[in-house]
Amino acid sequence: MSSIATLLIVAAAIALGVALAYVPMRLLVSHMAKTVRQFIDRQRDRRHASRKSPDRRKPVESSTTVNS
After folding, report:
1. How far apart are CA 23 and CA 16, in angstroms?
2. What is the pTM (predicted TM-score) of this model?
3. What is the largest CA-CA distance in the chain?
4. Structural domains of the chain, count
5. Has residue 31 been placed in a domain?
6. How far apart are the C-alpha atoms of 10 and 3, rounded to whole Å?
């Protein structure tokens, strides 16, 4: 009888631990996803915004040869 009670207490402790860890984990993951989504949106807006200065990036060469 005492072994069954011990197993029930251990199972309840594990279930309580998982339940108490789940809520903060979900909040953290949702906050991280929101932050990443906002960053992607900002980068997209910056890429599409017109600039007063000329584009300083080097043009990509179309040749596929490798210089050694």
Report:
1. 12
2. 0.49
3. 81
4. 1
5. yes
6. 10
